[in-house]
């Protein structure tokens, strides 16, 4: 028998084949966020034990849909020389909840377009699927894109299995203190791995939290927003349909992930 | 707090959003297999504790590279009406090992092209990554494909992150009893999930086995084979380079997965 | 100055880089066809000069939507050894028209998923776009697919730019003489290449016809059909919405293309 | 018979289905350029009649490989609201030639990743194929990308049909007056459309030129460069292998295309 290495599988003598390099993982990206209020019962229905809805005076129907155009890499920055392994896109839905007498952010749906991002999310407790995600980039020359200035018009779309699932538009109105409030708390995730027996029990079901370190934030922009959600036989996004759209945001974000914390094994 | 359902995440009140439907999962596909002998030390280097190489008289350098063009679905067969969710392609490398006084098959590398197949594999202990896989289909009319008959020429290729990793060719010589011997034992897999703390320890590291049930086999064809393996900064396939190519096979296979067994928690 | 070769661009001293090998091109594939009647005015609106609608007693509202899962290759069959260059999928809409006192088939919309198929179509006068196309394959073992027998349930879907555009289902009822009537005439196509001046004039606007040779047909199956068409900002498929669905068909087809004929330069 | 509209096919009563909107087309993008000297004979071999190599004192072996991360749209900017139709990536190889007593730039190979860009290129005389193209983006926050400053390390890769064809790296050394000299002349292209008869003759073979208008240039950066070219059965990039790498450049470019000029019908 041999000693094998690698943060994740496949593990080999060198560790080189691992789907993920060891943390820390560094991220730099542009985030387009839209926030709205949905039926609070639709949010509550997505909060399993031990999570509870936030209180009535804490905006229990608040939802954020966040698109991100990321570059990310391991600590040796090797991916910078092979950008197909550096870049991925992401769309995720965040709500808030209560547990242990605190408010947490909770990712209820999320899609990415690369396998390393998918596996990394599963490790962190994000319920990631693959999707096709596109997001307008700001430009500094020419007419084929918005400027980061009032009137700048940004859009983003999400599809999976050849069906459009969501599309949003944000028209910037000016600078902002933040890029939204729904995703502003520590995350609380379940990591669920069913037993190989497929007997309805989980071999792993820990409750975890994670937060970026070395967070570096660019200037935030706010604007008016539009949201459209579409149905699919294997998705339930439309159950979170907006009652009131709150606004949209654009911001560049840099962060590093170096591990989280098991809240409850 | 709410009751959430779903075999896998994301879990919701209905379970409809789960990346995987509950087992049983049914599979029908065409397999193109190539087998060769490599340096037995290269195989041994991929066998972590408690696995041991097979004995010297058991062909310890034997390797199979298997391409599969699958359709698969849940027990309600819903995917048959939405073939983008029905079909996926796969390429995987199998070696053999010993544990508990028996010979097992072991998948050391594997690539698929859909997220449901990736997640299903991780659940089963397959170290799946995403790849681009293509495999010649036999035809019954026209000239743009081989017939299932002596002289029929089949090929398959694997790429990941925009690099060709493997290509094989098989020229059929005639009917066969089997479609290879390397993948003929029960599978033994490790399921590894690192702790969220990323402290070098695993939150889950069970040893599992699984086997199809209701296996239905089409006629097997054998032939001569060619194999080419290519390098990548994040792959180690070339460490298993052929010393002697043993042969190739084509066969249609149907099977059902309804759960495996934890060998060691 | 040098002599350059190649059936299509880029042309080089060897011709090896040409996006297309020289004809003949061989095709082997499986076709899933659905036919319906739409508003005859919607068909007429797609027939430019010199084409005319078929007569009232010739079923002027007839439409076929045909999905095809192809392998195709040049005359040296080189693509058989590199299946990523061998295979493509296609969905196309055919109506009929009159010109020169005859009835012709006319492809009004078509999508494929590889560049060689796109360029080949443009050469032949097919108005091809890229799309994502999936089509259920019949199986001979296992449960994850239909058999070619009464009750066999086939589906196909088309998407482009992350929007589902069409989905069809066919449930086989039995063997058939043909696989439809709409696509049964010689094709008449316009080949339009605008002048580089983009002044509203075409540098090329010939009227051409083409037909396969060495056609080899597998057994045809017929069945009941369902059709759903969806909207997009850049498509008009829904203008051809069914008033009456006529039926569906499945058949394997082999053919060779070795050039067409200019009807009107 | 009906009147049909549309800059390109498919043409309909509204023109909405056309694969391309009518010009002008606006472009905003980031270009990563690497320039080198190859064997001048390899350049000359790619110059068909009436093009001639540039003179010996005009650097006849100069080659540029340019990667571009584009957004582009029609004059109504509709694509800004649907970014999957707005963005594409491109890699192209440019050499220089003489004709009519002037020096021209000439694109000898080019790959893009969307159908609208492919069709637009064919209209303009670019010999476009589909490829998979990735290019490091500069960042302003975080560690997962280079800054636009001395030491910033950019990379780009090109693949087609699951084979890596080229990869380049540029390490910025400082600001620059230009972003290269090879692509600095008016373009001269052949537009070749074979006759449908496939008899070795072209139905269209005009010689055209085109140039952007309303060009808006961001600051240019120069740096040291590395280039690797790889082989493929259907490509000849390696025939242009570097003898001497001249340098690399990064620049944002905005431009508008509103039609070119037929030099020789």
Q: How are the secondary structure elements laid out?
A:
Four copies of one chain form a homotetramer.
Chain A: E1 25-37, H1 40-44, E2 62-73, E3 87-99, E4 102-112, H2 115-124, E5 128-130, E6 132-135, E7 153-160, E8 163-176, E9 187-194, E10 202-210, E11 213-217, E12 220-229, E13 244-257, E14 261-264
Parallel strand pairs in A: 4-5
Antiparallel strand pairs in A: 1-2, 1-13, 2-3, 3-4, 6-7, 7-8, 8-12, 9-10, 10-14, 11-13, 12-13
Descriptive overview:
Four copies of one chain form a homotetramer. Chain A is mainly beta. Chain A has one domain (25-259): Acetoacetate decarboxylase-like (Beta Barrel), CATH 2.40.400. In chain A, 6% of the residues lie in helices and 48% in strands. Chain A has helices at 40-44, 115-124; strands spanning 25-37, 62-73, 87-99, 102-112, 128-130, 132-135, 153-160, 163-176, 187-194, 202-210, 213-217, 220-229, 244-257, 261-264. In chain A, a hairpin with a 2-residue loop joins strand 3 and strand 4 (102-112). The longest helix of chain A has 10 residues, at 115-124. The first copy, chain A, is globular, with a radius of gyration of 19 Å. Chains in contact: A-B, A-C, A-D, B-C, B-D, C-D. The interface between C and D is large, with 71 and 71 residues. Chains A, B, C, D: It comes from Acidiferrimicrobium australe. Chains A, B, C, D: This is Acetoacetate decarboxylase.
């Amino acid at each position: 028998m041999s000693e094998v290495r690698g943060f994740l599988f496949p593990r080999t003598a060198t560790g080189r084949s691992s789907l993920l390099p060891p943390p820390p993982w560094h991220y730099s990206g542009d985030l387009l966020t839209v926030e709205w209020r949905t039926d609070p019962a639709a949010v509550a229905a997505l909060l399993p034990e031990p999570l509870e809805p936030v209180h009535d005076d804490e905006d229990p129907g608040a939802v954020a849909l966040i698109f991100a155009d990321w570059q990310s890499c391991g600590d040796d920055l090797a991916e910078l020389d092979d950008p197909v392994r550096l870049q991925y896109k992401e769309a995720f839905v965040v709500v808030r909840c209560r547990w242990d007498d605190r408010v947490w952010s909770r990712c209820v749906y999320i899609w990415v377009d690369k396998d390393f991002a998918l596996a990394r999310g599963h490790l962190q407790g994000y319920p990631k699927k693959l999707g096709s995600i596109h997001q307008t980039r700001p430009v500094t020359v020419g007419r084929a894109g918005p400027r980061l200035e009032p009137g700048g018009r940004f859009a983003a779309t999400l599809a999976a299995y050849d069906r459009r699932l969501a599309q949003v538009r944000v028209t910037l109105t000016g600078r902002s203190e933040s890029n939204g409030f729904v995703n502003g708390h520590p995350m609380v995730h379940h990591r669920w791995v069913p037993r190989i027996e497929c007997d309805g029990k989980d071999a792993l079901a820990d409750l975890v939290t994670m937060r970026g370190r070395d967070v570096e934030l660019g200037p935030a922009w706010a604007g008016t927003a539009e949201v459209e959600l579409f149905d699919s036989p294997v998705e339930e996004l439309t159950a979170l349909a907006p009652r009131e759209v709150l606004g949209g945001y654009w911001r560049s974000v840099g962060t590093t992930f170096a591990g989280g914390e098991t809240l409850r094994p």
